[in-house]
Write a structure and sequence with these properties.
Length: 214
């Protein structure tokens, strides 16, 4: 039964929204990786680098050469999503930056999908940058899951302020039964790939400890 708070979108609109949502996931991962780098290996360059502004080429070139494990995870994952997901997705659906950005409504709704389910914990403390990175990985899975649901059902509740995403591996598996749409399969694989990195990131214990006030 259709939920009264669901909004339906056309297939072409959903594909463009998906392109923007995937770009948003890449952006979030890069920003979070940069913030960790600026608290460590790039500390001396803190005044020269804007952690919020994202340049896919320059930022990835920078993050790739750093040694901090979480930063390496960020660069590897951003590389994977850009080259193994976004580019093929654009090719399959005849989309690129120019085509998508010409459609202001689809762009706006794609970013709404991204911001509705991705959580940023922008806190100045060093340790919280690692907490934020793990949260970015977790909520990135939710963004892509909601996109996948939108692809399958044609509807979304992202504009419903009372809705909380019900993502779980079991629900993802159930949603995929009998579905061979290449876009949907690609999103399911992406969720699992991000999950693998979240597990690896949370397994690292060598992160700065909170300072206790005396």
């Amino acid at each position: 039964m259709k939920n009264s708070n669901s909004i339906a979108y056309s297939g072409a609109m959903i594909k463009k929204m998906g392109y923007i949502a995937i770009c948003g996931v890449i952006m979030g991962i890069i920003v979070s990786g940069k913030r960790i780098a600026l608290s460590g290996e790039l500390k001396s360059l803190k005044m020269l680098i804007d952690p919020i502004h994202v340049d896919l080429v320059e930022d990835l070139d920078l993050l790739r050469i750093l040694d901090e494990p979480h930063v390496k995870f960020a660069s590897e994952l951003a590389d994977y999503i850009q080259f193994e997901v976004l580019n093929p997705y654009g090719l399959v659906n005849s989309l690129d930056d120019d085509v998508v950005l010409e459609d202001e409504w689809a762009t706006e709704k794609g970013w709404e999908l991204h911001w509705r389910f991705m959580f940023y914990l922008l806190h100045p403390k060093v340790r919280d940058r690692y907490v934020n990175f793990n949260r970015i990985l977790l909520t990135s899975q939710r963004v892509i899951y909601e996109l996948l649901k939108l692809m399958v059902t044609g509807e979304t509740r992202m504009s419903d302020p009372t809705y909380r995403t019900n993502y779980s591996p079991g629900r993802l598996k159930a949603l995929m039964i009998g579905n061979e749409d290449p876009n949907v399969v690609m999103m399911a694989e992406l969720i699992n790939h991000i999950k693998d990195y979240e597990v690896k990131s949370r397994a690292i214990t060598e992160i700065p400890k909170k300072r206790t006030r005396r």
